[in-house]
Write a structure and sequence with these properties.
Blueprint: H1 14-23, H2 28-35, E1 42-50, E2 54-61, E3 72-73, E4 76-78, H3 86-98, E5 105-116, E6 121-130, E7 143-150, E8 160-167, E9 170-177, E10 188-189, H4 190-203
Parallel strand pairs: 1-6
Antiparallel strand pairs: 1-2, 1-4, 2-3, 2-7, 5-6, 8-9, 9-10
Length: 228
């Protein structure tokens, strides 16, 4: 009996990798039933594309935007009244931002919910496999450019950093991927880095990135200790 693969890195073909990813995600129908409620107000698409290896498609938000200007991000946004479910939100936003029709995206499932805007907005990360023949381009002034980043760029432990940042009494655990070599000198951080790290934890359990503590340090625990 053939052992099931433990990690995405054990596979070579696009078909094997796509099915491996699909098997480890929350299925589309479960995603729709569980998360298409008023509690979850938005969605992003985590777009994967095969181009001589697995790539992650990302956009850079315009410097003119009020929220998160200049950040590397995934296509997505808040639900419109006409959206039927969270998967529909992610597909609509991807078409509006990059001109990629839903017919060119195979939805594999989702990574589940995450929280934005200081805990105010709950959203879903939908994973989509893109047709390799697409030619995505920014369709609005909200996007500076679109870039494909090889998945292996997120697997270098020397290019990954994390820390707790404090705003008053609230602590946020913030992740950073140094992707300047692949993303026009831009670093991936914040919510986008959190989604990527979540994907890696699911698909490559032995990825070798630094361990992340579950409980945030209290401010006094961050103070230097004087040693006699």
């Amino acid at each position: 009996m053939r052992d099931l693969p433990f990690s995405l890195l054990e596979l070579n073909s696009a078909t094997e990798i796509k099915e491996f990813i699909r098997d480890r995600l929350i299925p589309p129908h479960t995603t729709i039933n569980a998360y298409s409620t008023h509690e979850y107000q938005g969605a992003v698409l985590f777009p994967l594309i095969w181009d001589d290896g697995l790539q992650v498609l990302m956009i850079r938000r315009s410097e003119t935007l009020r929220r998160n200007p200049g950040d590397m991000a995934f296509p997505g946004g808040v639900a419109d009244p006409d959206d039927h479910d969270v998967i529909g939100v992610s597909l609509r936003e991807t078409y509006e931002e990059l001109g990629i029709p839903s017919s060119k995206i195979e939805v594999l499932g989702s990574l589940g919910p995450f929280v934005l805007a200081g805990g105010i907005l709950k959203a879903i990360a939908v994973v989509g496999w893109l047709d390799s023949a697409i030619d995505p381009k920014p369709m609005t002034t909200e996007t500076d450019f679109v870039v494909s980043i090889p998945l292996h760029a997120f697997l270098n432990p020397n290019k990954y950093f994390h820390m707790f940042l404090y705003w008053g009494s609230r602590a946020d655990y913030v992740r950073f991927f140094d992707t300047r070599e692949y993303a026009n000198h831009n670093v991936v951080w914040g919510m986008s880095a959190r989604v990527i790290r979540n994907f890696l934890d699911f698909m490559i359990p032995d990825h070798g990135l630094p361990f992340e503590p579950i409980t945030p340090l209290l401010p006094e625990e961050l103070q230097p200790v004087d040693k006699e």
